[in-house]
Amino acid sequence: MSSKRMPFYQKRHKHFDQSYRNVQTRYLLQEYSARRAASRQAASYHISSNLGRTTCRLCARRPYRTSFEEEEEPREARAASRQAASYHISSSLGRTICRICARRLYHTSSEEELQESKVARSHEQKSQHWSELRRARFVTDLAALEDEVHAARHLAREQLDKITIQRMVEEKMALERYTVEESISRAPEILVRLRSHTIWEKMSVRLYCTIQGFPTPIVRWYKNEELITPASEPGKYTIESKYGVHVLEINRAYYDDTATYTAVATNVHGQASTNAAVIVRRYRGDEEPYPAEILPYHLPLPLDMCYTHFDVQFLERFGVTFGVEGETLVLRCGLLVTPELNRLRPRAEWYRDDVLIKESKWTKPFFGDGEASLSFTHLNKDDEGLYTLRIVSKGGVSEYSAFLFVRDADALVMGAPGAPMDAKCYDANRDYVIVTWKPPNTTHEAPVIGYFVDRCEVGTQNWVQCNDAPVKICKYPVTGLFEGRSYVFRVRAVNQAGISRPSRISDAVAALDPVDLERLQSIHLDGGKEIVIYQDHLEGDVKIPGPPTNVHASETSKTYVVLSWDPPVPHGKEPLSYFIEKSVVGSGTWQRVNAQVAVRSPRYAVFDLAEGKSYVFRVLSANKHGMSDPSEITPPIQAQEAVGIPSAPGRIVATRNTRTSVIVQWDKPKHEEGLLGYYIDYSVAGSNHWEPCNHKPIKNNRFAMHGLTTGEKYIFRAKAANAVGLSENSQESEPVSVQAALTCPSYPYGLTLLNCDGHSMTIGWKLPRYSGGSNILGYYIDKREVNHHNWHEVNSSAVKERIYTVEDLTENAYYEFKIAAANIAGIGQSSEPSEHFKCEAWTMPQPGPPHDLTFCEVRNTSLVIFWKAPIYMGSSPVTGYYVDYKEEEGEEWITFSEKPTSHRYLKVTGLHEGKCYLFRVRPVNDAGIGKSSDVSEAVLVQAKPDTKEIAAGVDEGGNIYLAFDCKEISDASHFTWSKFYEEINDPDKFKVETDGENSRLYFKKPDTDDLGTYAVAVSDTDGVSSSFTMDKEELQRLMTLSQEIRNPTIPLKSELAYELLDRGQVHFWLQAESLSPNASYRFVINDTEVVNSDTHKIKCDYSTGIIEMTMDRFTIENEGTYTVQLQDGKAKSQSSLVLIGDAFKNVLAEAEVQRKDFLRKQGPHFLEYLHWNVTENCEVQLLCKVANTKKETFFKWYKDGAGLDVKEAPDLQTGVCCLTIPKLSKKNQGEYKTTLSDDRGQDVSSLDVSGKVYDDMILGLSKVSGKSASNLKVHCTPEGIRLQCFLKYYTEDMKANWYHKESKISSGEKMRIGGSDEVAWIQICEPTEKDKGKYTFELFDGKESHKRTLDLSGQEFDDAYAECQRLKATAVAEKNRGKVIGGLPDVVTIMEGKTLNLTCIVFGNPDPEVVWFKNDKEFEMNEHYVVALEQGKKASLVIKGVTSEDSGKYSIHVKNKYGGEIVDVTVSVYKHGEQMPDVKPGTMGKARPIPPEAVH
């Protein structure tokens, strides 16, 4: 029959309704979903879009030919082109043409016709015959063109009619196609399901299934719920789909291919799946068991998974673990499994609270390599619980358990609650699911007022909030889901502070109706075949469905009611939907609840119900044929909570468990309906600060709280939780101290023989390692001879000491012993039998063995060892002991000291941290070294965490004490104080007081006899002990402190002091550490007490301990001694201040200054006197601040007594006045003064800008300039190489120095130093090779030296030197070249007939050559032109009897080997009687240089 098992894709977190949507299939589904909506408009849209489209073909057309081509072509071709253009115009009349293109077309035609007319006229002149022929052809073409236009119009009309008919046909076909698709659309349906197969290895297997549905479903294959992709293992899998038959072929199957294979079919209407198991067997040997992780879950598991007995030992176990939400964590457990078989091993299972844990995205179990582990990828409070590791084999189950605590992560908002937990979904349907969760514990946060539920579709990251207002209970019905899709959910808690972090997301759930599975029926046929059909196929042709039945409220709440019903029978083949109606009882009217959206699930949550009113409901079913009659009306239903908040748990009791844990038990509440669990809180007794014990509700009413502090007292409370909320807190438990629970003690150990006289033996033993939480009351000893099997009781009453002599023994017989310890809980387990001891008398002269080796004060490199003296002394007393030790794995014993120690203790040092050591003790007497003690147990040399030491102090009564605290004590523990490791038993000098975990050793009469080493040991602990060395300095400190306490003084924070107030008053004060309201005080001046008065104002602030006196006027009579006397109960104190001589005069003078300053400030005054500042622009500002000014206040600047005029008067309202000195130099030195005056008074401030003040200003300028200094730059001159540094401001007053190779340079002939306002330079005259090297410019600003360096060497020096030589040669040439010094004007005006004399002075070294030119041509000398050169300096040109022909440009060329220059003179000759030209007074003509290379 039909299977009712839910499909895996609805139960498990891996959902595949989104995973099939790759790019191609997603496109197909989207195309199909839009096909029905688009089918009706497809044809019309195509036609209307074509008809309504605006096209212009002429815009895309290009000119047919260029004008150049037309000129070359014959006239017939151009005529044909025009005809073609005309045809195109006419053929496009049925289309839309833009105006621009039309104009362009006609404009182009007009231009062509104009051009053609011009050409025609030209050809007409050439050939009249050709024109006639052209006209005839044109007329013929025009007639043909008109015919083509008519044909094109007729064709366009026929095409339009054809398109109209085609549109009508497509609309009709789209309507018919939509009707057909609606009738055949359905979710995937599996006609033939997969069949299971069992095959041998390396065989191939094919899995078949037949699936139908419309649209065609997409089928995906899964192996153990993992998607199969053929590309991941090429050749391994082959997937085929044809005509609804889907095939998965597994080629050459191996043992690992044993799995459950699933085919999931999906389309837009839903999903369907089928699965089958494939079992692969092996040929050789016994078949291996199926791996549990890949077995089909619907197949029966074999009873014996492992056919071999395994012995399992847990080595390294995980303990109680504490984690935080969001962290990663691994629980590990080391295992020893014997026998170790590679191909066969036991099964490791992890359980949380007895629920099997499977591998998921949150937990990853691992078993192998001698280890079993469970990894948490992201901790949540859902992970809290008791974890159990079970190793299962045929031999049985070995298990180990420990608790994991997971506390809340820090809230995103301060005070927000912790995250909810355990979000789950149930009652899933096509569009509906109920989400439940557990409430968080709110120990110190505000109560939770509601929750928000978020949903997210699987395969996306889009979270959508389901409820607008917080839901108050831990359950919410989520509606509005899309059928066939999968969802995950999370929950957030809300309180008055904010919203919590979200809970862990729930397992995914598919929006599918589980009733669909019940409608499947299987028909078994012969041959193992099976036919699966839907019950719908057996029903008749039902048109209108019947009404639903069994309408009832499956769940009620204050905010909603969930209605459930059974679908109508018969169901019919058509999909059903439902409509719900409600009515207030007694109203008689019905209101449809889901009028907008039909419900497809047989469940629905009705919201918006009025509180306190009763409602009745009815449901109608509908399909495409119509709607059924209403169902039967439900009984009256009222929206109310079915379950209330639970009552508080009853009496709570906390009992001891271990040294760090407590067992808490409580009575269950009276009302346990829907109880989710309990929360437990704890608090240190007396603190009233509560913390949560568990962060996830626990089911049981018993809980073990771990992680507590040993010895601390705690109280506990509990509260119950259900879906409605948390109960009130229970009553608080009685305080319980964290100690181990009382049990029987462990067995004694270290049995050793201490003496034997032939008839008796004295044996000793060590304390049990664990006392059971109470004092050891005694020991019971059993004995037996080695050859006997029965044990005999030695003592009937308990022995309190750990040494006992066993009498009545047989000489030379061998005996063994065992001992059991007893406390108030009972007698513990007996020890292991001792070694075989021979009853033979000891007669050796050496001593017997020491015994009872104990250790204390174990630190990182040392420890203290104790032992007890031998019982058998030998022939003489014991004189000392040797202590030997070795590492646990070592073989050679090491003696700590070469000389024996006389004490029975020894501090062994020089050990290695983290190593384990063994010890033994050997006694010594006059006869030699005796028997060594038994070897001790291994001792780990390592200080324990939080190791405490003895502290010395003095109590309130002045008593000196040594104190030690131990949190690890139990009821059986006691503190043992010792001096020099000998227990203190002197009540006259010491007193021991112990209170709980604190113990003190008091010194009654401390003196130098109390110097020494003191130690304390705490029994029944893990070796807790400490020591303290009391030396002279420490004892003196403690005795001094004791004296101060016994004879108290009032401690003073400050002695008597004074200060001057603004008005010249003198204020005396002192401050005590503390004063009570009953304290008294006195002020005494020169042995005379003063009291509070107008002249001496005295007061005391007891809260701060300040006593003060203010003297309004301080005069010469007030010289003397000032004393304050204090008394507070028994404590006294006194402080004095002496004001005599110079000290008094200074106070008096300062008080007078303060008084005058106060009077000054009554009028306009300077708040800050004149001071200076240097700006970033290297300007010096003289600044002052004024106060108490008004509009009439007058302000004036002065320098050396003379007033200064400033551009802008200062704005006194701003309070700041400034005088700027742009470039400070020595000329700015002088005394600057400013005055401030009005009718209330006058104030003056001055500043002498000279001496040190001026030097400081220069230093300030140096600091700013030094920071702005540029790098040194090379500047070449004819004199040499100049190094320059550019600054914001530079003056010779600055402390600037130049260095060459670290040697300071002084200015001289060789090196000249100078500068200007913005540059400092050094001139290297006539540079040589010696001048190479590093040059440094240093500017010192008083604190820091600002340096700039340049390495003038190598190519840098060579380039600079070459440039200098070039400039020097240029300068020499410039100096010695020929030149005209003066005498020639640029323009000369002269009358005809006059004599013109042009004379100038020339210079040159050597003497230059002088040549005269007229109009740039050298002329010959004659009587008319006379040229002269006197003494090589005076050159002249004389023109006798000038005529108009002598007008022109005259030039003198003066040149030598270094070059020269040309000077032009313009001569203008005018005739007699003519007006003389107006010429401005002449200046010397501008010279034009003659380069040296032009000199010949």
On the 0-100 scale, what is the average pLDDT? 82
Number of helices: 13
Low-confidence stretches: 1-25, 40-97, 284-307
Give the terminus-to-terminus CA distance. Answer: 131 Å
Roughly how much helix do the residues carry, as a percent range?
10-25%
User: Which shape, going by the Cα principal axes?
Assistant: extended
**Count of beta strands:** 100
Largest sheet: 6 strands, mixed
Oligomer: single chain
Based on secondary structure, the structural category is mainly beta
CA-atom Rg in angstroms = 59 Å
Q: What is the beta-strand fraction? A: 35-45%
Structure notes:
With 1496 residues, the chain is mainly β. The chain is built from 13 helices and 100 strands. Strands 92, 94, 95, 98, 99 and 100 form a six-stranded mixed sheet that branches. Strand 49 and strand 50 (826-827) form a beta hairpin. Helix 3 (42-51) packs antiparallel against helix 8, helix 6 (75-91) runs parallel beside helix 8 (128-184) and helix 7 runs antiparallel to helix 8 (128-184). The longest helix is centred in the first third of the chain and has 57 residues, at 128-184. The N and C termini lie far apart (131 Å).
Q: What is the topological layout?
A:
Layout: H1 8-11, H2 23-39, H3 42-51, H4 57-60, H5 67-72, H6 75-91, H7 99-126, H8 128-184, E1 186-192, E2 197-200, E3 205-214, E4 218-223, E5 226-227, E6 237-242, E7 245-250, E8 259-267, E9 270-281, E10 311-314, E11 321-324, E12 329-338, E13 347-352, E14 355-356, E15 363-368, E16 371-376, E17 385-393, E18 396-407, E19 421-426, E20 432-438, E21 450-457, E22 463-465, E23 475-479, E24 486-495, E25 498-499, E26 509-510, H9 515-518, E27 520-524, E28 530-534, E29 549-556, E30 561-566, E31 577-584, E32 591-592, E33 603-606, E34 614-623, E35 626-627, E36 637-638, E37 652-656, E38 662-666, E39 675-684, E40 690-692, E41 702-705, E42 713-722, E43 736-737, E44 749-756, E45 761-766, E46 778-785, E47 792-793, E48 803-806, E49 814-823, E50 826-827, E51 837-838, E52 851-856, E53 863-868, E54 880-887, E55 894-895, E56 905-908, E57 916-925, E58 928-929, E59 939-940, E60 951-954, E61 960-965, E62 975-979, E63 982-983, E64 990-995, E65 998-1003, E66 1012-1018, E67 1025-1030, H10 1032-1046, E68 1052-1060, E69 1066-1072, E70 1080-1085, ...
Parallel strand pairs: 2-9, 11-18, 92-99
Antiparallel strand pairs: 1-3, 3-7, 4-5, 4-8, 6-7, 8-9, 10-12, 12-16, 13-14, 13-17, 15-16, 17-18, 19-20, 20-23, 21-22, 21-24, 24-25, 24-26, 27-28, 29-30, 30-33, 31-32, 31-34, 34-35, 34-36, 37-38, 38-41, 39-40, 39-42, 42-43, 44-45, 45-48, 46-47, 46-49, 49-50, 49-51, 52-53, 53-56, 54-55, 54-57, ...
Helix pairs in contact: 3-8, 6-8, 7-8
